[in-house]
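Render Alpha-L-arabinofuranosidase B arabinose-binding domain-containing protein in 3D.
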Amino acid sequence: MNPTRPLRRTMTTTVAMLVALALLTATWVVATAQRAAALDPFTGYLMAHFTGESTNGEQIYLAHSTDGLNWSDLNNGAPVVVSTVGTRGVRDPAIVRSPQGDKYWIIATDLRIASGTSWSDAVSRGSKSLVVWESTNLVDWSEPRLVDVAGGIPGAGNAWAPEAIYNPATGDYVVYWATSAPLNGVTKHRIYYSRTTDFRTFTTAQLYIDRPSSTQGIIDTQIVESPTSVGGFRYYRASADGHITIEGSNSILGTWTTIGNLSHMGISNGTGGGNVVEGPMWMPFNNGTSWGLWLDQYATGRGYMPIRSTNLGSTQNFQTVSSYNLGGTKKRHGSILQITAAEQSRVLARWGSTAATRIQSYNFQDRYVRHANYDVRIDPNVSPAQDGQWRIVPGLAGTGTVSFQSVNHPDHYMRHAGFDFVLARYDGTSSFRADASFKAVAGLAESSWTSYQSYNYPDRYIRHWGYELRLDTITNATGRADATFRAVG
């Protein structure tokens, strides 16, 4: 018998245990760091919304607030992301953060009424898919994709107003939305749900909310968490079902208890008359002790109004809020995300307000870049003045580039098309982003000025030729002067 074998076996076992412990510790540290990042104090709020049935209103807009009541439009009031799939329009966006704070999603209704679709067709023969974007930093978003969530529901006509919440009981997300479909002889909107871990693969849709005693449908519902269970429940649900009904539960997929509605405040979803609202949108205040519930006064066109409560266990605890400001654009059904200082910094760096500037020609210094009938040129004495004003914003194509956003048409940008420059509405495509992005470099004719190098044709620069802007290679002194500009107040 070799007396060293037991010792070797013991040493081997000990080493293996130490390695396993090291790996476990490393995993714990990483997971803890991720949780800590997600649990940084919230310092602001981000609202995702659409604006209405205008040409570009059914896209994703963002607004920011530091107090939850006074809001500023981001991206100078223009859409932040645009749908290029399905109906090419989106409504009712929900913005979702992972528990670790390392991933974000926007999910939205695939619907564009502005294209001429009737509400009847949208309900009975509409899209059964949701539009999904994802991001790792809240500012750089993927291309949109369609996810068919309602196609398996017998007789389904649509999929509207999606929401999502992380469910710690199952370690995945519950995605819920409204679908109009026949059930027990009644066709109406009910809330269905599915589960997902990645917003790509979804479980079969299941019925989530129905009011079987009523022919009244439910389109809008949203859940908020009360981590300390103030009022007796961990989760609260607000649904537009004729009233604005508040329910509570300790499990997202468990039994819900009806708490009441807002009829005592003169607020309903139609059944109770009074101030008729829809699109209930929860917002936990960052103080950790109160919740806001925003309600869209669609019947009167007055837009969202907030009410507030410190205890959601009774609807009698809601109070009206008189002082608030929603900014310059109309806010339609969306969602509000509490954001950390780091998230807020990234969002404001990308989409915060940018001063309006004029872009002056180097060799014709009485002339400025302007748009006229969607063409782009240099002219003196621009009238109206806003035709010659631009916001030089972070480039649509990404870091290190800039784009030129029109002041009086904020959903339009200067882009090249066939090496000619036009003012065009942002369509969300990668080709648009590339055509509208430029690298600001030292002026080719004077280094204290600026020249703009094309992102997708880096051998070409913005220049004027016969006062028209075009994208050219630069080979001589005249070209260098034509391709040199400066931004002035």
